[in-house]
Design goal:
The protein has one helix and eight strands; from the N terminus they run βββββαβββ. With 117 residues, the protein is mostly beta strands. A hairpin with a 4-residue loop joins β1 and β2. The N and C termini lie close together (10 Å).
Length: 117
């Protein structure tokens, strides 16, 4: 199970296909890039889970979503500077035997997240 993410574009009512995302491990203020990827047609990592249970470690992580780039590519007229540029979600993993799903619901003006299943 491990760690996964999913992004839904609430402005258009669809998965955020083509959005660029980064995964980092964090320790205090330091962040280390683990991988960059582009969401598939379902708004998910095309390679599946970001970590499986064997690779997921107890600790803190950061997902960074390129919201401005995604909506600009969709042709949405954005002010300069845009209200949301990159959305960073910092979260902790305490139990590596559980699934951590980090969904993002996003528009150019708002976002919401939660620990999914």
């Amino acid at each position: 199970m491990g760690l996964s993410t999913h992004v839904l574009d609430t402005m258009h009512g669809c998965p955020a296909a083509g959005m660029q995302v980064e995964l980092h491990t964090t320790q205090g203020d330091q962040a280390t890039l683990v991988k960059r990827f582009v969401l598939n047609q379902d708004g998910r990592n095309p390679d599946g889970p970001l970590y499986d249970n064997a690779g997921l470690k107890v600790g803190t992580y950061r997902l960074v979503f390129d919201v401005k780039g995604y909506f600009a590519a969709r042709g949405v007229s954005l002010p300069e500077p845009n209200f949301l540029n990159r959305v960073s979600l910092d979260f902790g993993v305490a139990h590596t035997d559980q699934h951590y799903h980090v969904p993002l619901l996003v528009s150019p003006w708002s976002y919401s997240t939660y620990r999914g299943s």
